[in-house]
Structures are given as structure tokens and as C-alpha cells.
Design brief:
55% helix; 8-stranded mixed β-sheet; alpha+beta; 6-stranded mixed barrel
């Protein structure tokens, strides 16, 4: 009997390869997408952690300032401590390197990290940063001035060969500030990650205007030292600078891992959407298979095959489909991950792993996990057809009468699941991951699909009397009413896929609309001028580019007097490390006297600032990450923003919250006059120019460049508001392009499920169609009835999918997004696109039902009535 069953299943799989291939393809796509996302993110995170360790080394403690650098006198204090066995001073900053033009090209600038080090202390703490002189280098090149050592990424970025040619002399021009500095390349360093230029710390301080400054100090402590007591003793030492922060060496990698966790989980859940809908395709394929073999199952039952054996037989087939799909998906996922790492560098649009070029790190444990998920999805999809095969009435099926109508489940279960989903949506995130919100979405989907029989009865019980005098529509509606359990099963795939497509459409449209409105507020001017930047800072602890690329106030005044310029505005940004467990936040100094609501996209209203305090306005992530709530004080900024001339620390008051889609880790806006009074810094990072009516934008840009070159040779980037908006929205659309593809895949799987379900139903109703033919129905009329059933069923699916999708979109927009990324958006319902999507689904369902009915409504259907005569 076991050999017979094996042959029975194998023949079914072998003789219908295309139909079974569709189910395998669905499982394969789901596993491939999820597994590739896992491999990409794990590889990028591993590579980033390795790069951080190679550059930062493995000290016991790191000492950093909240912003910029600090006085090197602190190094002497630390070096004298008996608990310190080794102290390594480091000066690190962002710089630009000038790349020689190719034939017929122009000079270009590339960003890199410049690191000044003490070569005597490096071997014990950060050996990967130890300069390795070339064979023809000077004897004491490690300590010689005006020499620089590049890692492999820097040589590649500068267009230099991987190894310096024997006897050749190489040089590089670097800038951090106003002037270019020429340094001779004397060797290399082994550190990985992004482009790095290492030099003696004295050279870095002198050539780049940072005399007496350090970025950090790496400490190696004596064995048995109590770190907490050591830090407390230092901070209590008279004259110890306020605000200096001690951090563990692994904090940078751990910080990025924690903050990218929500991003990685969201990508994985999005990828699993294909696997979720793939389960419905497995269901449809096996339902069709069971329907076609119903009489064979019944005959086997008469010959001694028990109902439990029929259940196991169908589950075994679904297991084979799942195994084949999972194995193929793991192979495809590995290939996709390898291609993505080569093309995208592991970033995937998240901005967490910039400067890292990871290689693929294949994980056997992850492969087993996602392979098991694929098999589980196939088994879940095969469970209902297996139960249908188990419950098959043998005698009735042998006569071709089919199975009795399936009964719908109680609507109380559906209401309970929906209520549970609403309750879960109100729970907080777990370690930055909206686990409860994802469970809420699952409960809403399952509850909505469970409620389908009740919804069919609710609608069609009221519509049926209206069609009682029209035969063909009445037959279509009556079958949907009487067979509502079967109809619910058939359209469940459409409901699942359409609801997810609707939810993703609403989420993306809401986000894009909110970003567009945000750009309208934060970009009020016509032109924006910025000193040539050198990339982002923050993740690695390096100084932000905007801390060094600035304009003097005199240039701002000169620009505002240019012909064609009506007025100007300024912006100053600084990177602040408020907490070693979090990435650096951005402090933004700008003039707010014209009204905070006009200058910032506030969430809510601005609060009046108490007398004697300084008002600040924080972005939404600050509320979650630092508990900076409106109406409260904000002590971390008092510690980080040391007043000029050693004055008393200022008291800051959170006067409002604003949306900032550019800085996920938090930003603080402060009035420019308060910033200048506290820091004495009057330089600016960005200049906004409003053009006079009729002024030529091109002429103004040329005048700005000429004036910048005349006033100190500053190189500037100029962009119009239209260019910035277009680039921003293009980046947004590219980041969410995968969601449109997933929507198409989900809907296609749902429609295939409808086609397979109708095929199964039609094959089981051949005698019914034959009876209709004997009663005088033409073939066209029978097909009209089938098409009407398809329209009725998919219409219910469209209504349910739209309603569920809107409910899920509320969870995504109002819960998942704020809990994952700490910013909010306004809910936008693009009714035109949503209704068009629903109409397309109904039309496609009607056509697929009509096509499925053509095969069963032919002449053989008439003959099928005689089979029992």
C-alpha cells in the first residue's frame, strides 16, 4: 500500500509539472527574498563591526568629547594615572582628497577619514592602523612630517594602484578646512572599511589647523582595575573638563546593530510577504489537484485507504513542493545576496553601513531557518486540501456528486481575532522592534479571512431577493450564498494579497506625501549653497563634515549683496555625541525669529520658553531616544554644549517637536543668536538664497562660485530647490521600488489562487453543468453563470481586501513606522489607485473564472450526466 501511495503522488507531481511549478515558484520566491535580506544585512553588519574594530582597535576604554575635539592636556592627566598602562592619542576628522583628472575629464574630490596617531602606542591597541612604510621610504617614516599612509579603500578611491610601483613617488592633496595640503604617500595600513589616511598626529594637528586638539584617547588599563571607580575618580578630579565621555570599544558596532535592527526586521517581514502569499498558492494548487483526483481518492478509499492516509498523502505532496521550493529559494537567495552586496554594498538604502564593502557571509543556521519556513508555509497551504481529501464522501464522490457545501466558521472567532489585533497594536515595541504590531497585522488578516463567510451572507442575503427574476445573476449569487464556505476559501488568497497590497500602497503614499510636505517647509528658498562636504559622520565617531566645511560671516554678507539676490538665510550644523549608547545627533543653529511654525514642520504647537532658559526644538526621534518631551528640560545638551569663555552651563527647555525625515537618529534646532552666544562660533554650514523677481538662477550661481573662489578659494555646492526636491523624491521612490514589485507578486499569486480554485470547483461540477445544458442553457449562458460567480466571489474578496488593507495600513503608518524609525507621518488614502486596484482584481477574477469554466462547459459535460444512468 505504501508503494502504491508513493507511486500515486509521484505520478501526480510528474504529470502536472507546470501547475506544481507555480507552487514551487511561490515558495522559492518567498524563501529567496527573506534569505537574501538576512544574508545581506548579516554580512554588512559583520563587515562593519570588523572595520570598526580594525580602526578603533581593542582598548579597554575610549575617551571622547560630545562634539569636535578636546584639549590634549587631558592626555597628560590620563597618562599619569597609575591605573593606565597605555594611552594612545588619536586625532580623527573627515577630509577631502583631490583626485587627478582622467584624460579629458575634470578634477574630482572624494571623502576619506584622516587619522593622526602615535605610532609608538598603536601596536598594542590598534595594530591594523600601524603604518607600514614602503621599501623605498625614509628610515623613520613613521614619525616624519608630511607623510601619509593609505589603506586599500583609499588607494582605490584615489585611483592609485593597489601597490605603489617600485621607486615611484606618490602624493595626495587633502583638505579639511580652507586650504589644500599636499602629503607624500609613504606606505599603507591594513585597516579595512572605508577610505582612511593615517599620519603622525603632530602632522595632522599642524597641517590641518588643530594644534593642541585630540578626537579621542584609547586607554589600556592595568589588570584588575575597576572601570566604574576609575571613571568616577577622574570625573571628580578638579579641572577635569565637563562633558567628556568614556565608552566601551564595542559601543560603535553595537550601537549600529541596535539601531539597524528595526530596519533589518522590517525588510525581512516585507520579504516574508511573498512567502505568506505563497502558502495560498500551494493551497490553490493542491485544492485543484484534490478536486481532479477526487474519484481516484474515493476509489482508493473503497479499496482500503483510510481517511487519515489520504490526509497524509496530500501533506506529503505539499512537503515535497515545500522542500523543492525551499532548496531552490536558498540557492536563489544566495545568488541575490551576492549580487546585491556587489552592487549596493550592503546598504540597501538604509544608510547604516556606509563606507563598508562587505563580502558574502553564508550562514548554515539561517539557511535551515528559512528553509524550514518555506516547508512550513507549504504544509500550511496544503492542510486544507488535505483535510478535504480526508473528509471526502466516498460513495457520493464515486457518483460524481461532489462534496457537501462547506460551512462557514462562527463570526465570533473573527471578531475576537480582530479585537485582539486592535489590542496588540497599542502595545509598545520590544527593543525597538514592533513585534506586537506585526502580530496585530497577522490577527487582522486571519480574522478578516475567517469572517468571509459571514460577510458573504451579510451582503448576498440582501442582494439575492433583488435578482430573483433574473435567472443567470440569481444562479451566480445563490451559489455564492449557499457555498459561502467554499467561496471564502477560494477568495482567501485574493483577500490576503490584496489587503497587503492596499496596506503597502497607503503606507508608501502617506510617507511620500509627508516627505513632500516636509520638503516644502524645510526648503523655502530658491538656491542652497554648501561648502564642499566630505560625507556623513556619526556612525564611526568621526567628526561630521559640516563641523569643518563652513563659511565665514563675511562671505554670507557678500552673497546677500549679489545682484539678483533678494535676501539670504543661514544654517549651522554640529555633530553632538550626547550618549555613547546612541549615534551622534545633529545640532542645527538657524534664525527662528520669523516664527518657529514657518521655519520648522512642528508636530503640535510650540510652547513659550520660561525666563532664563534657552528654547530648543527637537525632532521626533529625540523624544523616543532621549525622552526629550515638550515642556521639560534637557540636561544632556547642557553637558555637551560647553559655553564659550568658560561661562556657566546654560539651561535648555524643550519648546516643541518637529518632523525631520533626513536624520533618523535625532536633531536639535536652536536659535542662531543663542548658539553664537554660547559657543562664539559665527561660521555657517549652509546658505539659503531667495532670488529677486526676474533674476537669472544661472547667473546668480556663477556669481556665487566666483565670489566664493575670490573669498578664500572655498569650493561650494549649489543646488536649486527643484533639484533637491527631485533628488530627494527620486531616492525615496528607488528605496520603495521593491514594495511595488512585492505588491504585483502578491496580487498575481492571489489571482492564480482564484483561477486554481475555480478550476477545481468547475471540474467537480461537470454533472451540474451537464444538467443545466439538458434544461436548455446554452454554453454561453453556463459560462456567464461561472463568470458571474467569479465576479461575485472576487467582489467580496475586493471589499474584504480593501477593508483589511486599510486597517493594516493604519497599523503600519501609526504604529510600525513610529516604533521602528521614531518619526510619524500623516495618513493619506489614494482612493483612485485603491479603487482601480480593486476593480482590476474583480475583472481579473471574472476573466479567470470564465476561462476555467470553458473546459468544463463543453459537450463532455452533457455526457457526464449519463455516467450514473
Amino acid at each position: 500500500m505504501r508503494a502504491l501511495l508513493t507511486t500515486f503522488s509521484w505520478q501526480e507531481l510528474r504529470h502536472h509539472p507546470w501547475r506544481n511549478a507555480a507552487a514551487v515558484l511561490a515558495v522559492m520566491l518567498g524563501v529567496a527574498l527573506a534569505f537574501s535580506v538576512q544574508l545581506i544585512n548579516a554580512s554588512a553588519l559583520d563587515e562593519f563591526s570588523s572595520a570598526v574594530r580594525s580602526v578603533n582597535g581593542q582598548p579597554d576604554l575610549e575617551l571622547r568629547a560630545p562634539q569636535g575635539g578636546f584639549d590634549e592636556a587631558v592626555f597628560e592627566t590620563l597618562a599619569r594615572q597609575p591605573q593606565v598602562t597605555l594611552a594612545s592619542p588619536v586625532l580623527e576628522f573627515q577630509a577631502l582628497a583631490l583626485v587627478a583628472p582622467a584624460p579629458g575629464g575634470e578634477e574630482r574630490q572624494v571623502p576619506l577619514r584622516a587619522i593622526g596617531v602615535d605610532a609608538l602606542a598603536l601596536p598594542a591597541i590598534a595594530p591594523a592602523l600601524m603604518p607600514q612604510p614602503d621599501a623605498n621610504a625614509e628610515r623613520f617614516a613613521l614619525f616624519a612630517p608630511d607623510l601619509v599612509f593609505l589603506n586599500a579603500a583609499a588607494r582605490s578611491a584615489l585611483g592609485l594602484p593597489a601597490q605603489a610601483p617600485a621607486g615611484a613617488e606618490e602624493s595626495v592633496r587633502l583638505r579639511s578646512g580652507a586650504d589644500w595640503q599636499r602629503l607624500r604617500v609613504a606606505g599603507h595600513v591594513a585597516a579595512g572599511g572605508g577610505a582612511i589616511a593615517v599620519m603622525d598626529i603632530a602632522t595632522a594637528q599642524e597641517r590641518f589647523g588643530r594644534l593642541g586638539q585630540l578626537s579621542r584617547i584609547d586607554l589600556r588599563l592595568a589588570a584588575g582595575t575597576d572601570r566604574a571607580a576609575f571613571i568616577s575618580t577622574l570625573q571628580a578630579t578638579p579641572g577635569w573638563p565637563a562633558g567628556l565621555q568614556f565608552a566601551e570599544p564595542g559601543d560603535s558596532a553595537e550601537r549600529v546593530s541596535n539601531l539597524s535592527r528595526a530596519y533589518r526586521v522590517n525588510l525581512t517581514v516585507l520579504a516574508l510577504v511573498a512567502l505568506f502569499t505563497g502558502a495560498f498558492l500551494v493551497f490553490s494548487v493542491l485544492a485543484l489537484s484534490v478536486a481532479k483526483r477526487a474519484q481516484q481518492f474515493a476509489l482508493l478509499g473503497v479499496l482500503g485507504l483510510t481517511p487519515r492516509q489520504r490526509l497524509r498523502l496530500v501533506l506529503a505532496e505539499s512537503l515535497v513542493l515545500g522542500l523543492i521550493g525551499s532548496v531552490a529559494g536558498l540557492a536563489l537567495g544566495t545568488a541575490l545576496a551576492d549580487v546585491a552586496l556587489r552592487v549596493l554594498g550592503g546598504d540597501l538604502g538604509g544608510g547604516y553601513f556606509e563606507g563598508v564593502a562587505p563580502t558574502l557571509h553564508w550562514s548554515g543556521g539561517a539557511a535551515l531557518l528559512y528553509g524550514a519556513l518555506g516547508v512550513a508555509a507549504a504544509l500550511v497551504g496544503g492542510w486544507w486540501p488535505a483535510r478535504a481529501a480526508q473528509a471526502l464522501p466516498e460513495a457520493q464522490t464515486l457518483k460524481g456528486l461532489g462534496a457537501p457545501p462547506a460551512q462557514g466558521r462562527s463570526h465570533w472567532l473573527a471578531l475576537g481575532l480582530i479585537a485582539l489585533g486592535a489590542a496588540l497594536a497599542n502595545l509598545p515595541a520590544i527593543r525597538g522592534v514592533p513585534v506586537a504590531a506585526y502580530l496585530s497585522v497577522a490577527c487582522l488578516l486571519v480574522g478578516g479571512i475567517t469572517a468571509l463567510p459571514w460577510l458573504i451572507a451579510l451582503l448576498y442575503d440582501r442582494i439575492a431577493p433583488l435578482l430573483s427574476r433574473r435567472v443567470l445573476p440569481m444562479l451566480a449569487i445563490e451559489r455564492a450564498r449557499r457555498m459561502r464556505g467554499t467561496a471564502a476559501v477560494a477568495v482567501s488568497g485574493v483577500v490576503a494579497s490584496l489587503s497587503l497590497a492596499v496596506a503597502l500602497t497607503v503606507m508608501v503614499a502617506s510617507f511620500r506625501d509627508s516627505v513632500t510636505q516636509w520638503l516644502d517647509i524645510v526648503l523655502p528658498a530658491d538656491l542652497y549653497v554648501r561648502a564642499t562636504s566630505s560625507g556623513r559622520g556619526g556612525n564611526s565617531g568621526a567628526e561630521s563634515s559640516t563641523d569643518t566645511a563652513t563659511f565665514a560671516p563675511e562671505l554670507v554678507q557678500a552673497l546677500s549683496r549679489l545682484p539678483g539676490v533678494e535676501r539670504s538665510g543661514t544654517l549651522r550644523t554640529r555633530s553632538l555625541q550626547l550618549d555613547t549608547a546612541q549615534p551622534a545627533v545633529t545640532l542645527i543653529s538657524r534664525h527662528l525669529e520669523g516664527g518657529v511654525a514657518q521655519a520648522l514642520p512642528l508636530v503640535g504647537r510650540a510652547l513659550p520658553v520660561p525666563e532664563g532658559q534657552i528654547g530648543i526644538y527637537v525632532s521626533e526621534p529625540m523624544v523616543e531616544l532621549y525622552d526629550a518631551r515638550p515642556g521639560s528640560g534637557f540636561a544632556p545638551l547642557s553637558n555637551a554644549l560647553a559655553p564659550a569663555a568658560g561661562g556657566a552651563p546654560a539651561t535648555f527647555f524643550v519648546a516643541g517637536v518637529w518632523r525631520d525625515y533626513a536624520r533618523q537618529f535625532g536633531a536639535i534646532a536652536i536659535e542662531a543668536r543663542d548658539f553664537e552666544r554660547l559657543t562664539g562660533d559665527r561660521d555657517v554650514s549652509d546658505i539659503a538664497l531667495w532670488l529677486a523677481p526676474g533674476a537669472s538662477e544661472g547667473a546668480v550661481q556663477e556669481a556665487v562660485r566666483a565670489l566664493a573662489a575670490q573669498r578664500g578659494g572655498s569650493e561650494v555646492e549649489i543646488a536649486s530647490v527643484g533639484q533637491i526636491r527631485a533628488v530627494s523624491l527620486r531616492i525615496f521612490d528607488r528605496s520603495f521600488a521593491v514594495t511595488y514589485w512585492l505588491q504585483a507578486v502578491a496580487i498575481a499569486i492571489g489571482l492564480f489562487g482564484i483561477a486554481a480554485s475555480f478550476s477545481a470547483q468547475v471540474l467537480a461540477r461537470r454533472k451540474e453543468f451537464g444538467l443545466l445544458a439538458h434544461l436548455g442553457f446554452t454554453r454561453a449562458q453556463v459560462l456567464a453563470v461561472v463568470a458571474g460567480e467569479g465576479a461575485a466571489w472576487t467582489a467580496i474578496g475586493a471589499v474584504a481586501g480593501l477593508g483589511l488593507g486599510l486597517a493594516v495600513s493604519v497599523v503600519l503608518v501609526k504604529v510600525v513606522n513610529p516604533q521602528s524609525f521614531h518619526w510619524t507621518m500623516d495618513l493619506l488614502l489614494p482612493w483612485g489607485r485603491l479603487l482601480a486596484m480593486c476593480a482590476a482584481v474583480v475583472a481579473a477574477g471574472t476573466v479567470t473564472a470564465w476561462m476555467a469554466g470553458r473546459a468544463a462547459a463543453g459537450k463532455d459535460a452533457v455526457l457526464a450526466v449519463k455516467e450514473d444512468w
